[in-house]
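Study this one:
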Amino acid sequence: MGRIMKEDDIFISGLFDLMNLRFGPSQGPGEAFGGVEEMGVLQKEFQIFQRGRSFRDCVAVLNLGGFWNARARNRWLKLIGELDQYDSDEPGVNGNDRIMNMMVENFESGRPLPVLFQAHDSRSEEGRRVVVRDSRTGFFYMEQPYIIVSLPMLPKTAPRMARQSSKTARKAPAKSAKTAKTAKAAPKTPRKTPRRR
C-alpha cells in the first residue's frame, strides 16, 4: 500500500491516530465523553456501519482521512477503498467486509470494545490480508481490551516481488548447465596489489 501513499507515507501514523482516537476508549462521562461510546450512540442514530457498505465511505463520512493535506487524504481514502481487493483472516471474506462485519457486531453488542487500527508488513507471517483479532490490551500501558484491525502494507520502495504472498512468490530461475559452465570458464582477473608510496 506504500505504492498508494507514496511520499505521503509520513502521514500514515497520524491517520491511524485519528482512527484510534475516534474508536478509542471514552475518557469518561460529561465533557470527557467520546471515543467508541460516542460512536455507539452515532451508530444507533445513523447506522453508519452496515454490512455490504464500503469502509472507505464510513472513513470519509467521519472525516478520518486527515485535514492537513488533501492529497494525503485522497490517497488514504483510495487505500482504504481497495481493502475489498485483499483477503482477510476469515476465509472467503474480503478485507473490507471483514472490517464492516466486525464493526456491526461490535456496535450491536451493546458494550462495544474500542478498535485499534494498525499496519503489518505484508511480507510477514500475516501476509497480504486484513487481520482482525481480539486482544486483552491494545497498548501495554492501558489495561483495556481492544479489537485490533491490522492492514497489510509495504514500504513504497519495496521491490515488486516482495509484494507477492510468500506462497505464490516466484522462485529465482535455476541456473542452466550452459550458464553454470560459462560462469566457470570465465577467466579470473588477477588481483592488483596497490602501489606503495
